[in-house]
Amino acid sequence: MARILWIIFAIIIAVWLVGLLMDVAGGLIHLLLIVAAVILILNLFSGRRAG
Q1: Contact 30, 13 (CB under 8 A)
Q2: Between 30-50 and 2-22, two packed helices, what is the crossing angle to 10 degrees?
Q3: Which residue segment(s) compose the domain that 21 sits in?
Q4: CA dihedral sign of residues 21, 35, 9, 4
Q5: pTM surpassing 0.70?
Q6: Secondary structure class of 25 (helix, strand, coil)
């Protein structure tokens, strides 16, 4: 499960970066960054619980 979250995190960051550089969706593209941060936090907390 943790590996999947890291993959999703990496994909969202990549899409956010491309969207930011291409100026796609204006300010809404920053929602991807917020979603990525939430996934990162969930991954860090779930990793500590399992380990």
Answers
A1: no
A2: 160
A3: 2-46
A4: negative
A5: no
A6: coil
